[in-house]
Amino acid sequence: MRRLALTLGGAALALTSAWALAQNSPESLLPPGFEKTKPASKSTPKADGPAPTATSSPVVQPIPGGSAASSPARVPTLPSGARIPSLRELEAMSPDDLDELLGLKPKFDMPAAARRSMKQVGLLSAAEGGLPAGSLERQSQDLVKAAIDGNKGVLVSRWGHILLRRALASRLDAPEGMDPADFAAARAALLVRMGEGEAARAIVQDVDAANFTPSLTQAAMDAYASTADVTGICPVIAVQGGVRKDADWRVLRSICASFQGDGSAGMAQLTQLERGGAWPRIDMLLAKKYAGAAGKSRQAVKIEWDGVDGMTPWRYALTIGVGLEPPASLMKNAGPRYAMVAATAPMLPLVSRAAAADQAASAGILSSAAMVDLYGQIYQQDDITGDWADRADGLRSAYTGDTPADRMAAIRALWDGGDAQVRYSRQVLTAYAAARMPVDASFDRDAGDLIASMLAAGLDRNALRWLPRAEKGSLAWGQLVLVAPGKGEAIDSGALNDFYDNDASSGHRKSRFLLAGLAGLGRVDQSVSRDFAAKVGIDPGRQTRWTTLIDQAAAVDNQALVAFLAGVGMQGDGWDKMTSISLFHIVSALNRVGLSAEARMIAAEAVARG
Known about the structure:
Order of helices and strands: HHHHHHHHHHHHHHHHHHHHHHHHHHHHHH
């Protein structure tokens, strides 16, 4: 069984700190600094810090009860002017706090030779399938930022999601005038909104912590929360120190202290934060339970969900991080973002991951191979019974059934029993099984769904085997004329009208998408396109600010900018949110800049799911 493994590399720092303990040896009676004789010197070297301020205090120790005693007591301070904390405050401080207080924190977390360049931050080089590095270098930073920040992360198209993820993860130069760290932050933040926590985490890990800006620090926190990698933020906290004072930062800093070997101080800080109401009680209990796993503390922490009425990213991350799952009633209305996290969370039970995969696969987060691998693990677990075990058995039958009819029956059973989103996710699951089905008249009625299943995984060559059997005007034919490489023969009006007659979608949406895809790929004559557009109620000449921008980006052959703008145009939680005009401009722009494979897949997916 094929397995898909995605390994995202990242740098982690080992952080240690210790106090020097008193030894059972003779103690000097001299004050600190007087153990050795000061060498004679003609000139006093310049101190690194600010010069001490002159005072009028007498050199001779004042007599107790003298005039000095009548003056107000001075607050003890360090040479830097900082107030000396009390003993209780010192005990609650983390090693990082103490280093910062004493001025021992280094400015950089690694030697100069090991620091990474801020040029071309990302994961995929052009040689590895990424987009050209200089695509955005001379583009307006305002336009690029608007295209990224203005995307809410929910796309109607699985293939559109895959394309946008690839563009965001590419090794790119920052636009002119834009800080590279802020550019990385914007991309990572959008990846988090898309449910791509692993990719977002890899982006922020490609930047040295010393180069973090406030926006990249926040993006890093969001990325680590979305992957339930609570201690992943610790290297950033170690370098950034007290740059932030918000509750999230202080709680995470205390957790990191526990994992740096100072469990007692970490737990003391968490207790103090709990008393101060930094986080809600449930979150503080989860934080203490998580931190307790690192130290020698045997403090029992009981998690009770009574009275909890919502979910937050860090609450969810800490919950699954300590090996628990939130109550189903709490997750019912939590939103799809948590399903995207759960689908790839290795600490969750397989059944929970499979349930989340029914959303993640249709969105584009999970590949077909990853879905098969997940179901394969379920099949191997004897203690998993019920519907999920039956589905795993059904997937096996889809591959190993005695006859093609048996295999087709198993595939149909997997498709049925859910809404449109679940059905499409199961088509992603069965893509390779569908590719093994013979091209035979007995399966003509299933051809459209079999083709949609194959195309969900990019198996266009396998799908095109059905072209000789696909009747003009059928759903199978509509997908295949879009996905076929090359321009091919122009589509005539008769075939389009036949498709329209067979189209039962709301408002003939599939027919409109078919025309938009064909026109965007240049596979239909203008006269035919104009007549059919009038029939389905499309105004091909309608322009918006967005259509002008994506057309201009295509005119200068800018793949990355076209991909970002295409992502803006594909926002929505269903294909009913997509207009045929937007689809036309997306397909046309992608095709013109050399992303024709993505253009064809998006167009075919629109017809299949419209």
